[in-house]
Design goal:
single chain, alpha/beta, Nucleotidyltransferase, domain 5, 4 domains, five-stranded mixed sheet, 23 helices, 57% helix, flat, disordered C terminus, DNA-binding, DNA binding, metal-binding, protein dimerization activity, zinc
Length: 547
């Protein structure tokens, strides 16, 4: 029997169909599928079928509405906005540029929003990229709010940021004339460093890579390998992982998936004469050494690549750890590891001989670290240079703070952080507050913060740094506003690269003829509406080993 019909709102139905197309990567022609139309007609005979062109028009209209809502949200953001940017070539060979905004909203939560995922025809020169980004910023009305731009190390990006910095400084008041504008993608630099080291173990890596390929070639080979694993007394827990040679983190995961089955490969070599890629004992030992060597680098990369928490305060200590690791291995008794570490150190010095000033400031603005973290770390490397290095960072910190002191206080600070309910305070608490205020008269908010006791890392290891600053807005004023902006700096361009990874689902081989403006609408809407679409999708930063 036909289901009982009920009155439906056709505008609501079309909006829901629009959301289905966006969230589930469906083609526009989905609305013309005979069985889909049959189902919708069965559910309600009053349903009016729509064409592919109508579906396109609905998506574009919905995109326009959401974009206006987003413009209003960004207009109301009282803080500075940080950017990540990258360029991608789709399956249809067209170039796309992705520009993502990172900022702290009025509730002091870190937000990331795609501003533009649009076609970028050649040439991809620094001038053209800068022109495209500036046009996008002006379209969104946020050109006066920009703080930083995080990019990978492509030469065109260096030119682009230089042009963009000059334009934003002269026309739109970039802080400190853009001195802190350009941020190099830390994950990309780390990739370049590790790739240098991997060249020292090319032989075992080649054999392991070919081994994984050989086993994954057919179900029969997979079954034979499983039998070998069981025969040597190892529990088969997970399959082998294939790496992408330009992504060292995938090489690390491949090594981890293979090394635990080391003894099984020798048996496989004896059982199957066509298998000719078994590493020697010496090569296995090298592979195990490099796997152990890469583990801390992998952990640091994962930490760098977070998008739901601030990373600017993490940069300094993690770069210092990398330098300490390389120094340690440079003095290792194993000549192979020593040579590898020395080569990696050369690449490290090219990009990180001098730590990023603004991201070192990010560490100071973590109340668990402050200036003490810089002093401690520099002392461990070379005590004779500590004082000079710390002084440089403190000078720049004061320079930046002076800019915030001379800028009107934002009216968009969360009201939940304003003032204190003195009625709930005890008399002794109030007297202590009053005494402290008198002592602090004449000092800047920065001086007060630096003199205040540092929080013990042991007790505040999982502290939400932004939440802490939110609660300290009354006490530190413009310094809290500055901390909010500095801590929103993304130290990697992973956000843009992740968009391309998911963007490949939008522009796949079945949808490669989509017009660029349709791709832009779908990708932008997916960022705000299609969270469920990314469930179960593992997104890895697309960091190639270009110098």
């Amino acid at each position: 029997a036909r289901l009982a019909a009920r009155k439906i709102d056709h505008s609501v139905v079309r909006e829901l169909i629009t959301l289905v197309i966006i969230c589930h990567d469906l083609p526009f022609s989905f609305v013309e599928y005979p069985r889909v139309r049959e189902l919708l007609k069965y559910l309600n005979p009053e349903y009016k079928t729509i064409s592919r062109n109508t579906a396109v028009a609905d998506v574009l209209k919905f995109h326009g509405i959401r974009k206006e809502q987003m413009k209003q949200e960004l207009a109301g953001v009282g803080n500075r906005i940080c950017l990540t940017c990258d360029v991608w070539r789709s399956i249809s060979i067209e170039g796309y540029i992705c520009l993502t905004a990172h900022y702290v909203d009025d509730s002091w939560k870190l937000k990331s929003k795609i501003l533009s995922f649009c076609a970028m025809p050649p040439p991809h020169s620094g001038f053209e990229l800068a022109k495209k980004v500036l046009s996008c910023l002006e379209d969104w009305g946020i050109e006066k709010k920009i703080f930083s731009l995080t990019l990978d190390n492509a030469s065109s990006n260096d030119n682009m940021q230089s042009i963009l910095r000059d334009q934003l400084s002269s026309r739109h008041g970039l802080l400190c004339d853009g001195e802190f504008f350009h941020i190099r993608c830390s994950a990309h630099v780390l990739n370049l460093i590790v790739q240098v080291g991997l060249k020292f173990v090319e032989s075992p890596l080649h054999k392991i890579r070919e081994t994984v390929k050989w086993i994954k070639w057919s179900e029969g080979r997979k079954d034979l390998f499983k039998e070998c694993v069981i025969d040597v007394g190892i529990k088969y827990t997970a399959g082998l992982k294939m790496d992408v040679s330009t992504r060292w983190n995938s090489t690390y995961l491949m090594l981890g998936s293979v090394i635990k089955y080391r003894r099984a490969f020798s048996l496989l070599e004896r059982a199957e004469r066509n298998y000719k890629f078994c590493p020697s004992d010496e090569e296995w030992n090298k592979a195990e050494k490099i796997y152990t060597f890469l583990e801390p680098f992998y952990d640091i990369t994962k930490l760098f690549s977070g998008t739901s928490y601030p990373t600017a305060n993490l940069y300094f200590a993690q770069i210092w750890k990398i330098e300490c690791l390389l120094n340690s291995y440079s003095n290792d008794g194993d000549m192979e590891l020593q040579n590898m570490a020395n080569e990696m150190r050369t690449k490290f010095d090219k990009y990180w001989e001098e730590y990023s000033i603004i991201l070192s400031i990010g560490a100071i603005l973590d109340p668990r670290m402050k200036v003490e973290i810089l002093t401690y770390c520099f002392d461990k490397l070379d005590p004779s240079t500590t004082k000079a290095k710390v002084e440089v960072v403190k000078q720049k910190l004061n320079l930046l703070f002076d800019q915030y002191k001379s800028t009107p206080t934002s009216t968009n600070v969360s009201s939940s952080s304003r003032g204190t309910d003195f009625i709930a305070k005890t008399h002794s608490d109030f007297k202590a507050y009053e005494k402290r205020t008198i002592l602090e008269e004449g000092k800047s908010k920065l001086a007060v913060y630096l003199e205040d006791d540092r929080l013990e890392m042991t007790f505040y290891e999982d502290m939400d740094v932004l939440e802490w600053w939110k609660n300290q807005t009354q006490r530190y004023g413009e310094l809290a506003r500055m901390a909010c902006d500095v801590l929103s700096i993304p130290i990697t361009s992973v956000a843009a690269e992740s968009s391309f990874s998911i963007g490949a689902h939008v522009l796949n081989k079945y949808r490669s003829r989509l017009l660029p403006r349709h791709v832009e609408a779908l990708k932008d809407l997916e960022d705000t509406e299609g969270e469920e679409n990314s469930e179960g999708i593992e997104v890895e930063p697309n960091i190639d080993s270009n110098t």
